[in-house]
Write a structure and sequence with these properties.
about 725 residues; alpha+beta; Immunoglobulin-like; ten-stranded antiparallel β-sheet; eight-stranded parallel barrel; binds (2R,3S,4R,5S)-2-(hydroxymethyl)piperidine-3,4,5-triol
Length: about 725
């Protein structure tokens, strides 16, 4: 029973490893500068799981801080601090009422409780605003889910400057450090870790998408957590549009993280009678370091987010890096034949198959086979793909249009635009307004028809530009709603498509990893991690990605050498071993690979298929040094199986690890090496105790100093004897 009542107006979300204790604090008005009835929803505690008998004693008012005529610090512990009354921190909810009134005053109405969910209902009686603060906790996860619903029961519209999913207070510690990711196109999910200064640290996207530049999650520790140990508090937002996450480190020492959809500027509009639900914010506490926190997120994503988590993702071939826009039936079938031979199970035709699309400046929006290239449609191509034993997949970019397209000539009003303003293109394209129901209906119509006609098993759903001049003239005062309703529209189309085509699987892509988040993963199966397929760069990208998202969602292709993006030459084996750490795909020009490369590739694809369940569904451990820079490894554990992929891009670093210490093993058990490229140091059939493997480690050839660059190896062990 994850949500339990503790005392009068106090509840606890009890997870296997944590307790999240919260309740209603109502001022009696007897203390100076307080008002009778003034309500705060307060987080009493968030940390290691407390015994049930201790819950009531933990529901104490937070340690009093100095209050003065200038400051009342109590809002730092609130679940939803409002812009109103004696609060000067970052508001999670900021409302503007009729006549410019903007100090929100809430009273507590009721708690609507279920076993795994509770709604605390608040009301701003004067203006008829109902606010529901929701807390949910599913069985078996340490993730606590929170969101807010607002309903306008008044007579006039309400506008929100901020409508976050909630604020999370991190308990008092002597210091606070944050971990997160930043990036850019082809440089996504770069890990960064820094002390949180006193002040407000904001991570945000203003692009209308999740964005390459930041990802909506944060991990906080007291400066002492490591990969393997230490307390970590994490917050993530399940949302694929613009967002903002602010960590407030107060001068008096406390810390809270508030996050939600939307960025500063556009406002949320709620007409009388309307109701709105924010996206979910998810909080996780653990005391096993960053590694355990990541594993908890992965387990949550598999257990509670992904639509088809138990399926194994196929090895796909994608034509983009091989052909670019130069797509033809014969060219694709030639690649398909090679892809099937090397072991691919799914063949995805990328951009360039539709309308007049032979370059990026035309055809987007015209979703029928290019009449010059495919006069008889795509049936022959995809029948040919299936005859080779592969499933068929296709690239689409439903939210976009080139001005040079029939669609735009017909429906110029469908794009985001402001009257009297330019319509700036990026990559020669404009954004279709998915907040409009006619646009959604059009999209679902052609997508459904396309999937049906060609029996597609897979769509790669791309999105290649940020919003600009984001207006919606027909919507009047609701125009800003497009920022969230566009994302709702994308979700709705994906959901409806999946409903109509239950066998369809979807990959989320936005110029690489621009749309990776727990919102899109609710209706997609994997994400395109980055357009940068250089194996060494990719290691750093995959490292940051792994902090929140499981390997079974991470599309990773092996492409050509030199890499088309970086011109770096990396051996085929290394490229494979890096891509095998996620959902393996192939993206190179297979027709140009030598016979030796081809045979080696086929062997590696086969090796991947053998370890695939462990990589895609196992528990991930990040081992060794800095990925892409020094010797490092990723390890996956599923039941008795242990898979290790070890890498050493360069040899000169003398401080790099020489032995690989494994993790997450049963210390009393014995493990046998079943696959090894390590030769004498870990031959097949050799046995080691779990304790030796974790305490002392393995000597791997790729970790030894003075070897060539780009050494890598795959190792599999099996637990053969348990105590
Ligand atoms: C961006 C994607 O990330 C690429 O993989 C490819 O699909 C191109 N778009 C096609 O335009």
């Amino acid at each position: 029973m994850p949500i339990i009542p503790v005392a009068e107006r106090t509840w606890a979300a009890v997870t296997p490893a944590s307790t999240y204790l919260f309740g209603v604090e109502t001022d009696t008005g007897t203390a100076p500068d307080t008002d009778a009835g003034d309500v705060r929803l307060v987080q009493w505690y968030w940390g290691p799981r407390l015994p049930e008998a201790a819950l009531a004693e933990a529901a104490l008012p937070p340690t009093p801080r100095q209050r003065s005529g200038f400051h009342d610090p109590r809002d730092i512990h609130e679940l939803l601090p409002v812009d109103g009354g004696r609060r000067w921190g970052v508001p999670s909810l900021q409302a503007f009422y009729e006549g410019g009134v903007r100090s929100v005053e809430l009273s507590f109405a009721e708690a609507v409780a279920g076993t795994d969910e509770i709604e605390l209902v608040l009301r701003d009686e004067t203006y008829g605003l109902r606010v529901g603060v929701h807390v949910r906790c599913a069985d078996g996860t340490d993730v606590v889910e929170r969101w807010v619903t607002v309903a306008n029961e008044g007579a006039a519209p309400v506008r929100f400057g901020r409508l976050d999913s909630g604020s999370w207070a991190v308990p008092e510690r002597s210091a606070y450090r944050c971990t997160g990711v930043y990036g850019a196109w082809a440089y996504e999910t770069q890990l960064q870790r820094a002390e949180l200064p006193v002040g407000e640290t904001t991570f945000t996207s203003r692009t209308g998408t999740t964005s390459h530049r930041a990802n909506p999650w944060i991990m906080v520790d007291a400066g002492d957590a490591t990969e393997e140990s230490g307390e970590v508090w994490a917050v993530a937002l399940a949302w694929s549009g613009s967002w903002r996450l602010t960590a407030q480190h107060r001068p008096e020492g406390d810390l809270a993280v508030t996050c939600g959809f939307g960025h500063d500027g556009p406002s949320v509009h709620l007409a009388p009678g309307e109701r709105l639900r924010t996206p979910s914010a998810l909080g996780l506490y653990g005391d096993g370091g960053y590694g355990a926190a990541s594993r908890a997120w992965h387990a949550y994503t598999r257990g509670h987010v992904l639509p088809a988590p138990r399926e194994e993702r196929p090895v796909l071939y994608n034509s983009w890096e091989a052909t670019g826009f130069d797509v033809s039936e014969s060219g694709q079938l030639e690649l398909a034949a090679r892809a099937a031979e090397v072991g691919a199970e799914l063949f995805v035709v990328d951009d360039g198959w539709f309308g007049t699309r032979d370059r990026d400046s035309r055809g987007l929006g015209d979703w029928w086979p290019n009449p010059g290239r495919f006069p008889d449609g795509l049936t022959r191509l995809f029948d040919g793909v299936r005859a080779l034993g592969m499933a068929a997949g296709l690239w689409v970019e439903p939210e976009m249009v080139n001005p040079d397209s029939d669609l735009y000539r017909d429906r110029p009003d469908w794009v985001l635009h402001h009257p009297g303003r330019r319509r700036d293109t990026m990559r020669n394209q404009l954004v279709l307004n998915f907040a409009r129901t006619d646009v959604r209906e059009w999209a679902i119509g052609w997508l459904d028809a396309l999937v049906g006609e060609y029996h597609l098993a897979y769509l790669k759903w791309d999105m290649n530009r940020s919003f600009s001049q984001a207006g919606w003239p027909e919507a009047g005062e609701r125009a800003d709603m497009l920022w969230s309703e566009h994302t709702d529209g994308v979700y709705a189309v994906m959901d409806e498509l999946r409903r109509r085509r239950p066998g369809l699987r979807i990959e989320s892509c936005s110029g690489g990893g621009g749309r990776v988040d727990l919102g899109v993963l609710r209706r997609t199966d994997q994400v395109w991690t980055s357009d940068n397929t250089d194996a060494r760069d990719r290691q750093a990208i995959q490292h940051g990605f792994s902090y929140l998202y499981p390997a079974g969602t991470m599309s990773a292709w092996v492409t050509d050498s030199p890499n088309p993006h970086t011109r770096r030459r990396v051996p085929l084996r290394y490229r494979f071993h890096v891509a095998m750490a996620g959902v393996l795909g192939l993206g190179g020009n297979l027709t140009a690979w030598s016979a030796e490369e081809f045979d080696e590739a086929a062997g590696l694809v086969e090796a991947y298929k053998a370890i695939r369940p462990v990589v895609q569904h196992g528990r991930l451990h990040r081992l060794g040094g800095t990925p892409g820079l020094t010797a490092s490894a990723v390890q996956y554990v599923l039941d008795d199986r242990v898979v290790v992929l070890a890498y050493n891009p360069f040899s000169p670093d003398r401080r790099a690890p020489r032995r690989l210490r494994l993790a997450g093993l049963d210390p009393e058990a014995v493990y046998e090496v079943v696959t090894s490229e390590a030769g004498a140091t870990a031959p097949v059939g050799s046995r080691r105790h779990g304790r030796t493997l974790t305490a002392l480690g393995l000597i791997l050839p790729s970790f030894l100093p003075n070897g060539p660059d780009y050494r890598s190896e795959l190792l599999e062990l099996r637990r053969v004897r348990t105590p």
